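Example S7 (structure tokens).
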């Protein structure tokens, strides 16, 4: 099992460089989100990256993010793009697009499952099956007398075997190794992920969120699909038509109205 190496991860992004120009690799942290927040508050530059070999309190959208030491990618970026609170969901969309694109460049058919999953999708007897490869978490950091900034955390399952993954029947986790049948070079995975983050963060910086949304739509495994969803406890059926930069899904309910679904109130049941 190879360790993460500074020279193999940072400074390898070509073109105007924001993400990964500066960063650090740490052996063990509570969560890279905690360290990235600290670095942001201490004045770390835009695009500063924190990578860890291990997290003792890794966070996911619905609880803990588990990854045995040295087997995955656990990475956070400080993003100082000024965004209003109502616009911040674009950061999650950016993160999922960059992570799915990185997975694709590494030879696996990475897709996005709303709101923040990176998945491998397949069709089995006409039903969509998704296996979760990774996830994205974004937090807005508000400081007195300074514009709000963001931390974007990405977790990817890279070299776990089935035995290393949490038993989670509902979310059926997988890893890049399981999907390809051989180990991946985590330094290369990190480097390519940083290149993709850099590319998509430039699009956001150049005020082209539409480019991120267009790629998100292409990578989504659910667009134009009929799904079941639980919204405020009520089950509804319908078709996903699109996404807004606010992160809300545009949803056509069967025999009903078109509506927007927020991840605060909605769970997709597939
Ligand atoms: C999810 O799918 O629930 C989101 C998972 C996000 C995990 C990453 S790992 C790096 C960063 N640090 C954390 O504690 N969480 C994110």
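Recovered sequence:
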């Amino acid at each position: 099992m190879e360790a993460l190496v500074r020279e193999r991860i940072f400074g390898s992004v070509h073109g105007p460089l924001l993400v990964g120009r500066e960063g650090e690799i740490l052996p063990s942290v509570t969560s890279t989100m905690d360290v990235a927040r600290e670095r942001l508050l201490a004045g770390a530059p835009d695009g500063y990256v924190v990578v860890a070999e291990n997290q003792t309190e890794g966070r996911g959208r619905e609880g803990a993010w588990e990854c045995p030491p040295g087997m995955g990618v656990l990475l956070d970026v400080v993003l100082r793009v000024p965004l209003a609170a109502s616009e911040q969901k674009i950061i999650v969309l950016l993160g999922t697009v960059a992570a799915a694109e990185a997975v694709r460049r590494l030879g696996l058919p990475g897709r996005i499952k709303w709101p923040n999953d990176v998945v491998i999708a397949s069709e089995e007897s006409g039903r969509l099956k998704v296996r979760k490869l990774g996830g994205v978490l974004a937090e807005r950091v508000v400081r007195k007398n300074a514009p709000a900034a963001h931390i974007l955390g990405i977790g990817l399952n890279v070299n776990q075997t089935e035995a290393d993954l949490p038993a989670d029947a509902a979310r059926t986790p997988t890893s890049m190794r399981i999907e390809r049948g051989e180990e991946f070079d985590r330094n290369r995975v990190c480097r390519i992920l940083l290149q993709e983050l850099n590319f998509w963060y430039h699009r956001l910086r150049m005020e082209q969120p539409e480019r991120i949304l267009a790629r998100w739509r292409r990578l989504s495994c659910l667009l134009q699909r009929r799904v079941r969803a639980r919204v405020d406890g009520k089950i509804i059926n319908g078709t996903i038509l699109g996404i807004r930069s606010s992160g809300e899904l545009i949803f056509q309910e069967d025999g009903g109205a078109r509506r927007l679904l927020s991840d605060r109130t909605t769970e997709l049941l597939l």
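Notes on this example. The CA atoms of residues 89 and 247 lie 5 Å apart.
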